[in-house]
Design a protein that fits this description.
Oligomer: single chain
Bound molecules: pyridoxal-5'-phosphate, zinc ion
Distance between the termini: 60 Å
Order of helices and strands: EEHEHHEHEHEHEHEHEHHEHEHHEHHEHH
Largest sheet: 6 strands, mixed
Helix content: 40-55%
Strand content: 15-25%
Amino acid sequence: MSLVSHLRCVCCDQKYPPRKAGFTCPACGPVEGMFDVCYDMDAVAEQLTLSDLLNAPLSQWRYGPLLPLETRHAGRDWPIGWTPLTESASLASQIGVKRLRIKDEGRNFSGSLKDRGSSVALVRAVDGGAAGVACASHGNAAGSIAACGALAGMPAYVFVPQGTASGRVTQILAYGAKVFLVAGTYDDARALCARACQRFNWYNATVAYNPYIAEGAKTLGMELAEQCFADPPDWVAVPVGEGSSIAATWKGLDQLRQLEIIDWRVRLLGVQAGGVAPIAAAFHKSELTEVSGTTVADSICVRAPLDWRKAVSAVRESEGTFITVTDTQILEAVRQMGSRAGVFAEPAAAAAVAGIAQAVRNGIVDRRSSVLAVCTATGLKDVAGAQAGLGSALRVAADLDAIEPLIVGG
Ligand SMILES: *Cc1c(COP(=O)(O)O)cnc(C)c1O
Ligand SMILES: [Zn+2]
């Protein structure tokens, strides 16, 4: 039995029993009434101690008592989570901090942090006897749902906005999912997906709308807690689109603190692209205003985010802040992460490092700080998206004399 006690609406604070409730608060509706999944923490404390963790598998399933799943669930052998930390002294000195670690979520099953939540969604879809699973996405969540759908043997249907990078679409097709390229924005794709799920009895695995996805996503924070156990960073920087990932990162860290597995806190730095920064604006104004800009960081281009309340309160609780960065800064960070840390990040993922660099310049992050950037996805899915900041290859004859003049000056 899972140890979920109730669902709480983050808008009106009403509590609902988990079995009867849908995905969003009936009083507040599917745009405002996002649920937070709550646990019987006394029961969790009996099943999740430091010594339990010593023997637990090196995947996100090690946090079983804090997941909304039965103990012996269908996904328990899926290889999700436990991604590496990479430290780079070279990148740290370039952006002007004492230490810099990167949590490389590009090393997840389908290449992004979305696998954490998608796997939980698929297990629940299987348990609930759904006819299929669906989601709206910019590509990473869709790729992840498609990959987990393949693991689960469940048909997957994904809705992505037209203009989604072809590498992303190809990856999804390889997993055998049906891809709908929707004429419209991500927000349009999300609305269409919700209606299709109703009509065709698919399980709706869209980030933020489905509250159980964040429960998988929070294992990112739990892993950080363990991997930085005796050596916590001062700041953790997370790129923000819907707001789910940063809120979930905080929730994971916070739940392990409640269980007294760690006794420290970090400050969160939420990073948005300057053109599309509604949550950064809401952090300062406490209300959301829809925006209309765009950014090279497609995975965080969410103009009307659902999880802004969760994101704002997580960052407030952490005594952190939000920052915005330009596309030029983001592309520069792609180059810096690749050339100094050996991590190829997609633009949205590199925004974390760009955000730290900007926060150092603004005096928000002290130069003596130890910081951790979450690299949310690999750059390999959308190679064209990264290209603008990287210069180009050199065309040469197959001749040593032809390359020599090109080497001088690097
Ligand atoms: C989903 C995603 C994010 C942001 O997560 P939100 O929950 O939408 O805030 C950041 N980077 C990448 C690469 C993503 O795929
Ligand atoms: Zn409500």
